[in-house]
Amino acid sequence: MNDLPNRARSISSLRDFLELLEDSGQAITWSDPVMPEPGVRNIAVAASRDANGAPAIVFDNITGYPGKRLAVGVHGSWDNIALLLGRPKGTTIRELFFEIAGRWGDQEAQISYVPEAQAPVHECRLEQDINLYDILPVYRINEYDGGFYIGKASVASRDPLDPDNFGKQNVGIYRLQIQGPDSFTLMTIPAHDMGRQILAAEREKVPLKIAVMLGNHPGLAVFAATPIGYEESEYSYASAMMGAPIRLTKSGNGIDILADSEIVIEAELQLGERELEGPFGEFPGSYSGVRKAPIFKVTAVSHRRDPIFENIYIGRGWTEHDTLIGLHTSAPIYAQLRQSFPEVTAVNALYQHGLTGIISVKNRMAGFAKTVALRALSTPHGVMYLKNLIMVDADVDPFDLNQVMWALSTRTRADDVIVLPNMPAVPIDPSAVVPGKGHRLIIDATSYLPPDPVGEAHLVTPPTGDEIDALSKRIREMQLGALS
Amino acid sequence: MTTTVCGRCKSSGAVTDYQGRQDGAVVWTILRCATCNFSWRDSEPARAIDPAARSADFAVDAGDLQRYPKILQQ
Lengths: 484, 74
Ligand SMILES: [Zn+2]
Fold this sequence. Notes:
Structural class of chain B: mainly beta
Largest sheet of chain A: 6 strands, antiparallel, barrel
Distance between the termini of chain B: 45 Å
Distance between the termini of chain A: 19 Å
Number of helices of chain A: 14
Radius of gyration of chain A: 23 Å
Bound molecules: zinc ion
Largest sheet of chain B: 3 strands, antiparallel
Structural class of chain A: alpha+beta
Number of domains of chain B: 1
Number of helices of chain B: 1
Number of strands of chain B: 3
Oligomer: heterodimer
Number of strands of chain A: 19
Strand content of chain B: 25-35%
CATH class of the largest domain in chain A: Mainly Beta
């Protein structure tokens, strides 16, 4: 398929993307009867064992949910991410990383508006007697979750104190726990846009209305999950990064939403109220605690005819969460580091949202990599997330863990390790000293340079580069061809 | 038989939120504990919903709901 880049740019909805995935052997339909628990979880986990090639799975025969469809694993493999970016299956993670990093500031946003009456998302509309369980084929994602979670919701809201400002609209991914037929709790922290908006609405006693978009344009979840500047529109950013138009319309409660999403739940914050939420199996692979979280009441639901409910398996990795956010976690750190240090050649922050990161750098002088590591800790994502950093030379591919292990084995001295005690930490990091506070680790696995008296070893130099990459892919193709 | 005793905090008096049907017959029921908000489907494996089979690590103390912190305070 030579038209992959054009086809990727023509995607405007989840349905378009599922069609592209299916044409490429990257989506399957599960039509055997399956129980919501533990059947859906078991199948999603089994699929995510194959981080490179797992297909999206569309369930259409879940017991007790006749006629309803559920999609999981839409972003669940590097091959699916490659197709979204207009690249063929088998594209390496390193190539995908540079595909995303290269799109920075490259394109203009293309935003258009569709009248509500013509927006597919509004084909069916419910304004009373709403029961979310009657619309969404939910299931318990991990066995000790406190309830039924919507794990892949893009939540859109306007700033409650500046509701007419397009740029201050926020779109973010938050976990939602269904709390009865027409209510849900939303988990956030004060540092996130939604947390800030909830606090502002409650302080000023003004309404906060939100629109929860489910089954969205697949670019939105990739590019709207990582924080950007508060006054940048996530829609504009996602459109620019996809190099493709995004169609918006208005929700019934006046918020800009994607016109082609499968389902939109409109809701309003219950000011000052909190309900017990959690636990939820989170991305570090451990459960969050039980807390009292803000609660929203559903005011209306719009959906396409025969909607597809899209959800995610998240928990102890590797999971769809890692392929969904990994590259777009890595690329901003890379861009921010290169502003100060153009010697940085790649950043791999794929592991648990960057709790471990590997950075390759051209070592300017002895110890330079440690300086770069300290700069990484002060990037927006690094402040909370980059807990363990492994610094490698530019001749090591940080996306190839065999090469990283070689660098650790041959270029690390035990005193090339720095521990920074009692630093900020992600509250859900289970290794924290107390939630929100923990230690940082920097391992300098770069080679020795003057004035270090040891100097670099005389290295064996096996052939590398594009020619070897192409040969490696050809060998794999020949092997796959021999099988079929 | 559907029990309305919560598998997590052992309170009784859960409410029914939804019933799944297949060819007209009810195949499972979703319940919600009025005390701790635990929601469950009565068709789930016992280790997730049966108080006798559930791990105590995930119990909620219905007598001390104050201990659970409130997020987003002014
Ligand atoms: Zn309970």
